[in-house]
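Quick start: what a row looks like.
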Amino acid sequence: MNRIWKLRDRILTPGKPVLVMGIVNVTPDSFSDGGRFYDRDAAVAHALELVRQGANLLDIGGESSRPGSQPISAEEELARVLPVVEQLVQLTEVPLSIDTTKAVVADRALAAGARIINDITALTGDRDMPEVVRSHRPGVILMHMQGTPATMQDNPTYQDVVAEVRNFLQTRLQTLTKLGIAETQFVFDPGIGFGKTLEHNLRLLARLEELANLGRPVCLGVSRKGMFGKLLGREVNQRLAGSLAVACHAMAHDTAQILRVHEVAPTRDAVLMFQALAAAGL
């Protein structure tokens, strides 16, 4: 695997060590945060606290992608996220990611200092997004999703979920590199919970090496996902143990190099402990 990830003026090597991406939801209707960080100052304070806890990256989103959510305008999304990005670039060196499907939002956030686009549509949701990537040369997280957030959990169906997710991401990589975007700008995300049943999610997690074998780092986002509610009977704020179990499984098999999470401190502890054991030869 080529672990080099180019973020415009920076180069990271995810997996050496595993990177922890802290989630900053600047939305009034997040399924996990309940709008607690909708206010700009609250969002910035939360982001800086995640950095203090050990976040290597920050992912800032202004539009909810929870199951059943409806899209908002680019103007509203920009009003939510741009002030947060503009303030954070003055206060931290941690690379900022903009979680968006809209080219204008990505363009403005990157111009303000963000270095990563995290796009749940894998740059298919806005025809202008590839040009934004060519222009700014950010790192890009390409995610798989069946359907849209409004419909994705209605009846997700696959013949072979792992093969279909793998083929989709491989095809997107090939298409985008033909447009002149460097392969080293991309990271893959299997899209756990995005148009998948519990069984689909478990199969993807158990066979993540099939995505890792595509040659790009994998970003894994399972934090507070509904699968833990179904499998463990836990409410949203009681799903940390499940998330850490998945993270440790992925690290043990070297199938995820970035962990996108709400609870940074305990995830960072798990990463450091795992790495210490690995270094000791255990």
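That is the whole record. The mean pLDDT is 92. DSSP finds ten helices and ten strands in the chain.
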